[in-house]
Amino acid sequence: MSSETTTIDASVVQSRISISTSLAKNNESEEQPIFPKLSAIEAGGGRIEYRRVRCPPHRYTPLRENWEQILTPLVEYLKLQVRFNTKTRSVDMKTSTHTIDSGALQKAADFVSAFMMGFEVQDAVALLRLDDLYLESFQVTDVKLLRGDHLSRAIGRIAGQDGKTRFAIENATRTRVIIADSKIHLLGSYANIRVARNAICDLILGSPPGKVYNNMRNVAKRMNERY
User: Fold this and answer.
1) Element (H, E) at 214
2) What's the rounded Cα separation, in Å, for the pair 162 and 39?
3) Which H or E element spans position 145?
4) How big, in percent rounded to 5, are the helix, strand and coil portions of the chain?
């Protein structure tokens, strides 16, 4: 067997190194173009976008009492134009020339919708500051078809005595839960909403609250270890 030996010419290696360094210097010397950030109207092709959120009758008085707290972040932080339409009883929002974020209108719609569902302003305003928060709603009858007293008992199991079960689910999963008749509204991150939804579904299906408490305690322990 014949073994072939390959020799590397030092001059070739040196020339390649010098070429690569000269190319790197040329790339650094070339100025990269810097484009200004598009406003919301420019990103939408020059069109003004609108959103309208209806106000249910039972949230009309809370909306009037908390109107200034709702209006301040929408106007000062998101730079939107907001008004309350008394004819349609809805909150109208639209972009302006001062609106910078192209997703500001959708954030504002989610924020106002969360308040209309029954969440506190302090909880709903987190939708404007954090990107990984979501809203989810479902009916008790979507989990199990219940009527009459059976439906009332299922809702009572979710709430618990003096709201004890609901508070336990909120504290363990770091979510916010609103029980509006047979509708359940959840506010939180995707993973936390899934855990809270599973606990609520277990209660609807008839699991005793003690078992759900133990599961919530284990979930809270795992979350504390994770974070």
Assistant:
1) helix 209-226
2) 48
3) none
4) 55, 15, 30
Distance between CA atoms of 158 and 180, rounded to whole angstroms?
Answer: 11
Residue 180: count of CB within 10 angstroms of its CB = 12
What amino acid occupies position 189?
A: S
| Distance separating alpha carbons of residues 47 and 54, to the nearest angstrom | 23
Q: How far apart are CA 85 and CA 68, in angstroms?
A: 16
Going by C-alpha positions, the residue among 115, 102, 112, 128 that lies closest to residue 176 is 115
pLDDT tens digits, 92-101: 998 888 887 7
Give yes or no for a contact between 91 and 67, defined as CB atoms under 8 angstroms apart.
no
194-216: per-residue pLDDT in tens? 889 989 998 888 888 888 878 87
